[in-house]
Amino acid sequence: MEAPELVNLLRGRRVAVLTGAGISTDSGIPDYRGPDSPPSNPMTIRQFTSDPAFRQRYWARNHLGWRHMDQTQPNAGHRALAALERAGVVAGVITQNVDLLHTKAGSSVVVDLHGTYARVICLDCGHTMTRARLAELLEAANPGFAERVAALGGIAVAPDADAVIADPEELRRFRIIDCPHCGGMLKPDIVYFGESVPKDRVEHAYSLLDGADALLVAGSSLTVYSGYRFVRHAAAAGQPVAIINRGPTRGDDLATVKIDTGCSPMLALLADELATRSDRDEVVGVHGGPAHLGG
Q: Of 117, 223, 235, 289, which has the most beta carbons under 10 Å away?
C-alpha cells in the first residue's frame, strides 16, 4: 500500500492527530457510523438523567460491556501513533473515543475529548470512582447477573461500552447503585450526546493543535461537531489537513489529502516512512510477529 501524497504532506511536520471510532474497529470495537456499522442509537444525556428506566437499562448493559472494553487491546494503528509520538512526529492525540486504547498503546499526550469508560462521576456531588470499583458494588447488588446473561449468548459491545442484553426480565431485575457519598446519580465520566465537552479539555485540544504544523484525522466521519471543529480550526489557520477514513467525512472539503481506507495499515505505513527505525520496528512489527497487519 502506498500513499506518497500523504507521506509527503506530513514529512518534516509536527502533526496533531484527531481519532474517532474507526481507529478502534481492528481492536474489535465497532464503529457508530462506518459503512459496515450496525444501526445504533446512543443514549442522550436527557434520557439518562430524566428516566430511571433508561438508567437501569444503561447500567445493566454497561455492567457487561465495560469488561469487554477493559480487556480490549490496541491495534497496529494505535501503536503506530505511539511510535510517531516517540519519534517526535506526532505532537499528541485528540481522541473522540472513550476506550483508552491510545494510552494502552503508549501514547503519552492524549486528550480524551469525550472522557473514558474507566471512571464514574456523581452528577450531584462530583465524587468520582473507578469503573472497577462500581463493578464490585453492582456485582454485590446483582449476584450472578453477568454469568446468567453471558450464558444466553454472545455479548455485542458498542463504542461507548454499551452491550446488548436479550432477556428483558434480567434488565427489569437489575439494581442500580447511587453515589456512596451523597446518594446522588452516578454517570460514566463520558460526554453523552446533548452534553458539552468540558471547556478546559477543549482548550487543551486547541493548544495541542496550535502547537502543531498539520492535522491528521484517523477513523472519524467528523459528523459530531466536537471533532469537526478542530478540522475547521486547522483549515482556518492554514494548516494542512489529512484524513484517513473509510467512507466520506464532513471535513472532506477542507482536507488537503483524503485517503479512503482503514486506519491500521495506513498509520503503520506512516510509522514506517516517518518514524525512526528503532521506533517503527518496536511498534508495528514491522512485517510480522504479533503486530502483523494482515491484508
A: 117
